[in-house]
Amino acid sequence: xxxxxxxxxxxxxxxxxxxxxxxxxxxxxxxxxxxxxxxxxxxxxxxxxxxxxxxxxxxxxxxxxxxxxxxxxxxxxxxxxxxxxxxxxxxxxxxxxxxxxxxxxxxxxxxxxxxxxxxxxxxxxxxxxxxxxxxxxxxxxxxxxxxxxxxxxxxxxxxxx
Length: 161
Fold this sequence. Notes:
InterPro entries: YdcZ. It is a single chain. The chain is mostly helical. Helix content is about 70%, strand content about 0%.
């Protein structure tokens, strides 16, 4: 297994991660509201349709700004790279449904975070998606335990609020 040297996070990276987490929470809330009024499938179509239109607009603006680049010699993307839309659609449908249950927004996001951390640790351990393999440490296990414990506290102690 290759070992990746530890690096200290830069303040800008921490701020960007914090901001993206806030935007993710807002997006989950908007998807949940769309799911409440139109259903989970409608919520997913709305989110991905809006994203598609925004991507087309950004690509059109970029094309006006500069000349097209030469085609890359690196080849094609791996087949699994095209599956992101499927997992994204499933995520939107599942979160827009679970937010409208007693889990609410905080419980849904807490469990989602626990799932993301568990999957990313598995990806590190086994080198999924072309990532370098990394041996998991006690610190990694401790992070998962704390996240799951916090999630359970949010879900079970926050029910009456």
